[in-house]
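Reviewers of the previous submission asked for a worked example of the structure-prediction workflow described in the proposal, so we include one complete record here. The input consisted solely of the amino acid sequence. No template or homolog information was supplied to the procedure at any stage.
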Amino acid sequence: MPEEIILVDENDREIGTGEKMKVHQDGKLHRAFSIFVFNSKNEMLLQKRAKAKYHCGGLWTNTCCSHPRHEEQLEEATHRRLQEEMGFDCGLEEIGDFIYKAKFDNGLTEHEYDHVFTGRFDGQPNLNPEEADDYKWIDLESLKKEIKKNPDCFTVWFKIAMEKVF
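From that input alone, the workflow returned the following structure tokens.
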């Protein structure tokens, strides 16, 4: 059964739903979230998206990102997807939001009202291979240098969130 995600206006008010792939084909604004998890050394947990993902496969990004489903609360969705993608859960706090739009070579468009969450975790993730190929912990200074040196190795929303939130 196709996954239905939440369409929103520029104020994050729900205006309907749409089938996930169709929403990305049409570039409609929809609700999303990005999770940034840090350990006690203040290193950020990055994931390398699985090569088979519908867009941005093989790129480094924040710990977890996704969309709440129709009739699913944002907080429920963040914990569900963190567990599904990275194999763990932790406390999360919303720290901001932003809207962005990015077109990809495969014809899909991300147009998201993205809610940003942070959390703390000191264990090792248990990656879902359908979602992530790899992970690494990295300090913010090293990460900023890596993004500057190799910007094409990172997802568009991750770089925007880094600028806006951190």
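The mean pLDDT is 94. We consider this example representative of the routine output the project will generate in years two and three.
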